[in-house]
Protein: Thioesterase family protein
Organism: Kibdelosporangium lantanae
Amino acid sequence: MTIVPEEWLDYNGHVSEFRYLQAFGDNSDTLFRRVGIDETYRAGGHSLYTVETHMHNLREITQGAHLTFTLQILDLDVKRLHIFHTMYADGHEVATAEQMLIHVDMARGKATPMPDWLYDRLTAIHREDQELPRPDRVGRVIGIRR
């Protein structure tokens, strides 16, 4: 759980949009540590990089709110991970983020296959997550509806 500090607020008195992304990033880091992507793994020259994010801010969040998160693996292959975050403030859904991540060789700056052990760990979580309903906001595009 994260308690929203004052420094996260913007000039309107609500959480600034970049803090939403920071909080979702921290949520991803929790998954990464769970599956073995930690400082030692990154020191070996590999990591997951976010290449696309689509956020939905559903409610305003103010100082002192208690944030909790879920993260669902929607899909994956040996180089990519498609995830969906949901953020809750005091039990109410307040934001979501859909993200595509790629596994990279950091020295080369290029996508590279995950090691088998990492792919297997993520696949096991994905199998469990397939039993969850697919979030309604997955795959939405931005545009002015006419």
Observations:
- Strands lie at 2-3, 46-57, 66-76, 80-89, 92-105, 110-111.
- Helices lie at 17-35, 39-43, 116-129.
